[in-house]
Amino acid sequence: MAPVKAYRDLEFLASPDARTLRILAEYLEPESRFERENIRDIVVFFGSARAPSLDEAEKALKNAANGQAALREMERLQQRKRLAQYYEDACELSSLLTAWARRDGGEAFVLCSGGGPGIMEATNRGALEAGGRSIGLNISLPFEQQPNPYITEELNFEFHYFFMRKLWFVHLARAIVVFPGGFGTLDELAEVLTLVQTGRAAHMPIVLYGSAFWDEIINMEALARWGTISEDDLQLFHRADTPTQAFDYLRQQLGDIPS
After folding, report:
1. What is the pLDDT of residues 157-184, one digit of tens each?
2. Separation CA 231–CA 75 (nearest Å)
3. Backbone angles phi, psi at 238, to 5 degrees
4. Distance CA 58, CA 51 (A)
5. I want to staple 95 with a disulfide (CB 3.0 to 4.6 A). Which of 59, 130, 221, 227 is the partner?
6. Integer CA distances (angstroms), 196 to 176, 189, 204, 218, 257, in order
């Protein structure tokens, strides 16, 4: 029996000894696919995987009311409906940006999300509804984050390594929009701010969307008062509370990208 070539040996490729090859593959395969698909610039949306659409949230609230759910459950669903508004806003902003990117019949940039549900789904959905392509950089998780159905098929990725996925979020990014989210979103926001602050990533517009959320969750001004960041670092991000506000700011900042 002929020996198996190393690059065809699936048992070896899945082993700890081949970890470096797997990491390299998660750099080279996306790079090759982005080049093939002519993807040069992206605008990235971060945000909660748990944000439902407004329709979904309202249906759940109505069903709970009809079933005479407990007060605590009704309060939870009311809060979920509040979060759902950010799903709708992400969808609208994605559509506005996609339509603008395609304004002259070209494609100045492509919208990119983490590929899963919630704000990620809204991002890809908005791009599709505006007639554009969009990217989904999904990640394999123990509870199986499934890719949402709105991602452009050729731009649907599945990563194993978080750090390689993060690299691709930033490597081609021309702007970042950060919607309300949990630990993952906070991690992504902190990493992008750190990379820009230290000059390891190019300066780019970073939008914190939803002042009511972000002002409660992170007191950026307190960081400056305590001296753990400089006053100038407060200029690394911009707050917005409506799709129009965010769109107008990003259009001004990204006006140099040809379509």
Report:
1. 999 999 999 999 999 999 999 999 999 9
2. 38
3. -130, 135
4. 13
5. 130
6. 11, 11, 8, 18, 19
Alpha-carbon separation of residue 151 from 12, 105, 135 (angstroms) = 32, 21, 6
Bridge partner residues of 46 (DSSP): 178
What's 177's DSSP letter? E
With 80 as the cut, is the pLDDT of residue 107 above it? yes
Position 65 scores a pLDDT of 75
Considering the entire predicted model, what is its pTM?
0.94
Spatial distance between the Cα atoms of 144 and 146, rounded to a whole number of angstroms:
6
The alpha carbon of 24 is separated from its chain's Cα centroid by a whole number of angstroms, namely: 23
pLDDT value for 186: 98
Contact 231, 224 (CB under 8 A): yes
pLDDT single digits (tens) 183-234: 999 999 999 999 999 999 999 999 999 999 999 999 999 999 999 999 999 9
Label residues 37-71 b or e (16+ Cβ within 10 Å = b): eebebbbbbbbbbebbbbeebeebbeebeeeebee
Q: Are 87 and 49 in contact (CB under 8 A)?
A: no
How far apart, in Å, are the Cα atoms of 62 and each of 57, 79, 81, 118?
Answer: 9, 14, 11, 20
Residue 75 has pLDDT above 90, yes or no: no
